[in-house]
Amino acid sequence: MTSITIPATDNPAHHPDPTLQGSGRQWQGRFEAMASPCEILLENVNEAEAREALQFAARETWRMEHKFSRYVAGNPVDRINQSHGTPIHVDNEMALMLDYAAQCFELSDGRFDITSGVLRRAWKFDGGNHLPDRSETDALLRLVGWNRVQWEKPSLTLPDGMEIDFGGIGKEYAVDRILLDLNRILPEQASVLVNFGGDLACNGPRANGNAWVVGVEDHKKLSDSTETLSLRGGALATSGDSRRYLINNGVRYGHILDPRTGWPIPDAPHSVTVAAPTCTLAGMLATFAMLQGGEAEAFLQEQQVPFWVQRS
């Protein structure tokens, strides 16, 4: 059987220019990517350094979005999903993501599965009340299962009809990647915080030695943060159903699905926020906790990480 090699891609999409505000040695850069507001906070740098860092961060984030999104026709993920069982050769960055996805599948006992995105064909988490038939979700389960995928770097063989979706890990990876790159290109004394839609990481305290103050969103009041946290290093990530759910006969169904059943996790929290050394790890633990349902708190206590769970 022949194989296909996927070339690296540039980002052809147009994005509004990022904006930079601030003065002196404190700057706030903003742009849109990955369906989220993205924010770069920079201290102890001048305007030229801040502007260069922001432009780099925006370009690199857009590149990753274009590469790993399942919505971009012709990108590497789309070519994998349209491969119809033909082996695909991937580059090192894609291989890193696939290795991480495989690790998440194993560590979660199959609860975290990047092939489960096909279940969206049955579920519409738009605040409405429609529940799919079990026969519909059962039929889709035949297209779910990372254990059915053949992956040995650099070759991936995805069975015909199956898909991969990096939506559960892509944004956290981007946060860590951007922070790592900014640490490399900025002066050593720079203080940096990268925040992509509430998933964030910093390289240490602020320039004055104080902690960064960040808010934890209340799932009942999406425009306000009711609790603030102090972060002197590391990362935070949140998983939850604040914006994607449906309600049927008084029962709320969150958008996080169990790939083994095709249905939402019972007794899952509304949201879980986790602090960890990296955003990737924080995101993994937050999602794993959601997948534990009623045992979310017990799971996080075993991990010995700071966490915040909202249930009511």
TrEMBL record:
**EC annotation from Swiss-Prot or TrEMBL:** 2.7.1.180
Q: Does the keyword GTP-binding apply?
A: no
Highest taxon, organism lineage: Bacteria
**Required co-factor?**
Mg(2+); Mn(2+)
Q: Where is this region: Disordered?
A: 1-24
The record's remark on the cofactor is: Magnesium. Can also use manganese.
Q: Which reaction does it catalyse?
A: L-threonyl-[protein] + FAD = FMN-L-threonyl-[protein] + AMP + H(+)
Q: Where does Mg(2+) bind?
A: 168, 287
> A Pfam family name for this chain?
ApbE
GO MF assignments = metal ion binding; transferase activity
Which UniProt keywords are given for this protein, alphabetically ordered? FAD, Flavoprotein, Lipoprotein, Magnesium, Metal-binding, Transferase
> What does the record list as coiled-coil region(s)?
none
- Whether Kinase counts among this entry's keywords is no
Of which family is this protein a member? Answer: Belongs to the ApbE family.
This protein is called what? FAD:protein FMN transferase
